[in-house]
Amino acid sequence: MKYQNPVLRGMYPDPSICRAEDRYYMVCSSFQFFPGVPLFESTDMINWNQIGCCITRPSQIALDGVRSSGGIFAPTIRYHQGRFYMVTTNDSFSENFYIYTDDIYGEWSDPITVEQDGIDPSLFFEGDKSYFISNGSDEKGVGSVQMCEIDISTGKKLTESKILWQGTGGRFLEAPHVYRFGDYYYLLEAEGGTEYGHMVNYARSKSIWGPYEAYPGNPVLTNRNLGGYPIQAAGHGDIVEDAKGNWWFAHLAFRQIDKWFTFHHLGREVCVVPMKWREDGWFELGINGTSPTEVELPDSISFAPQNFSYEKTFENLTRKNDWLFLRHPIMENYAFAEHSLKLKGTKVTLDDVGTPTFAAIRQTEFHEDIYCDIAPGKQQAGICFYMDELHHYEVVAEGGERPCVYLRQTIGVLSHENASVPFTGDCCRIHIVADNLQYHFYILDTDTGKETELGVAETRYLSSEVAGGFTGVVMGLFAIDADEKEAWAEFTNLKVSH
Length: 498
Ligand code: 6LW
Known about the structure:
This protein is mainly beta. The protein folds into 2 domains: 2-296, Glycosyl hydrolase domain, family 43 (Tachylectin-2, Chain A, 5 Propeller); 311-497, Jelly Rolls (Sandwich). β17 and β18 form a beta hairpin. The longest helix is centred in the last third of the chain and has 4 residues, at 464-467. (Z)-L-Arabinonhydroximo-1,4-lactone (6LW) is lined by residues 13-14, 29, 73-74, 119-120, 174-175, 190, 194, 235-236, 252, 470.
């Protein structure tokens, strides 16, 4: 049977996976968004179902004033003696911490910090010992994997941090994980930067503290030589043996927008590839060391068929899993109802490193068809494709005496507004057609069915290659009110289809 990569689409970067009996769990990074660290469950490693987020309380994470792509960096999830641990970095405060839960469907603990620097922390448990691993650098600034033993009940270090391995010389050594498989400890990491040169390397040792011997076939996985291939930047990932003895590697990658358009705007996504053991105790990842768009597995490995089509509406999107907010949202400004969302704008705009009234969902496919009715009330309200505060496109509807709607595009310090189009009544219907290269924005006259184009915007200026950073595009409903009149805008009939 065949499956398609990415298995999880849209901004779900830096995956980490673990097994608890016959179920698999995955977490991803979330940066300045709240709630943080989305959490998924799977029974077959191919189909992933979101069951919540690990960070659900503002008290678990400092996000105020955190710049875009700051905040929560790569997490690791581990299951040990009936307890789940999620360890990550708040990069904006250079703080490594973990939280835990005994109920994967419930709330997670408050954070426990660990005094080891570096990013991409991981945990390894052996017997009653707990090890804390992260990237770091030596006194000359050369990237390294470092580890210490900790007391898992307090986070206190029980040993000094020691450098285990310095990788293969690629830039940005990150995503280290330590495993014990058979006689060896295996140390996996990623190098090359989370871009087109991304790759996975590993080494092994009979002692956890090393010395580690590099796999002679490194990089064990990379798409860096597949120029123009739809999936690029295969790297940063994690290994799991499933309950039937099959081995898997889940990792980040992105889809570039076209063969000769080396841009990606949907963020880093999750691919899964098989892992194969060799007789000499080394392993191989992927298909000939690459991560393809389609993987054929032997019939003995069964999984449910994938379904990539969707229709997202107010009725089926959930607060728990789907809606994202910037930093620490002021929830009194949001009224979620079964068939609508009402928003109360403040003077915080989409250009600010603050918390505008903005409820977003990830854009998960290049091609999307979007409808929404907007009643702006006495403020500005609209739909925004948001990469960061400097890169976003939005349809803005304005109420008042002369209701109108227009397209605004912000690309760095450039801001452009297309001509506005008037509408009658309180409400306008917006239609947006997204493809890999462009967004087309329309206002639709519901009486005549006639569409008037508001403008066209190019996806590439919302890409990571233009904007920088580690996030991807989200589509948000927003309200802005410079006078803070306590007015409400209402959104109804949202339909996002693919
Ligand atoms: C993450 C690092 C990386 O912590 O990007 O691909 C950083 N890798 O491992 C932010 O996602």
